Amino acid sequence: MYRIQQAANVSLLANILMFMSRENLTQFQDIVLVGRQIPRAAPPEWYGKCVKYCRPRPPPKIKGYQIECLPVGGCSYCKFFPCPEFPVCGNGEVPIPTRERVCMTCPGECLYLGETFALGESGIKSVDNVNECHCRGFWNFPQLVCHNKEPTPTPQIFCEY
Questions:
Q1: Cα(161)–Cα(155) distance, integer angstroms
Q2: d(C-alpha 107, C-alpha 140), whole Å
Q3: pLDDT of 97-150, one tens digit each?
Q4: φ, ψ for residue 155 (rounded to 5)?
Q5: In sequence order, what DSSP letters do the residues of the chain get, joined into one string?
Q6: I want to staple 137 with a disulfide (CB 3.0 to 4.6 A). Which of 41, 51, 142, 149 is the partner?
């Protein structure tokens, strides 16, 4: 039985999960804590810098991390990005949860790949390095919207950077 109390960043998470997969751990009788908490599940499969999830297991939502995935066939190739910590917003307002409820952000800002963007900001490069995104919505519920351009990258390209 293994218990991991905290992992400071995603690269440490990667090392922990690679260790678990090498040890052929398939059942966990304990909670594994990374940042805040990662759900109990069979170890995922690594694919470059991505974590590969195939049906019937969907990618998990992990508090403290944003996840961006590239769906291909019955699998999703996902990257995890740590949420920034906001002690106080620049204008003195209290941070609010993002739509996914995994990170906190200041009102009127979009959070994407661990970075914040002002409401109305555009020309933001997508995680797939192909699409462009812009921050839109309402003051308390801004969201990043990305345009789907063709072709989308292959998992080999998506998971390399």
A1: 11
A2: 5
A3: 877 788 888 888 888 888 889 899 999 988 887 888 999 987 667 888 888 776
A4: -55, -35
A5: -------SSHHHHHHHHHHHHHTT----SS-B-STT-B---PPPEEETTEEEEETT-PPPP-TTEEEEEEEETTEEEEEEEEPPP-SS-TTSPPPEE-TTSSSEE-TTEEEETTEEEETT-EEEEPTTSS-EEEEEEETTEEEEEE---SSPPPHHHHTT-
A6: 142
Long-range CB contacts (within 8 A, 24+) of 99-108: 99/141, 99/143, 100/61, 100/66, 101/61, 101/63, 102/61, 102/62, 102/63, 102/64, 102/65, 102/66, 102/67, 103/64, 103/65, 103/66, 107/139, 107/140, 108/139, 108/142
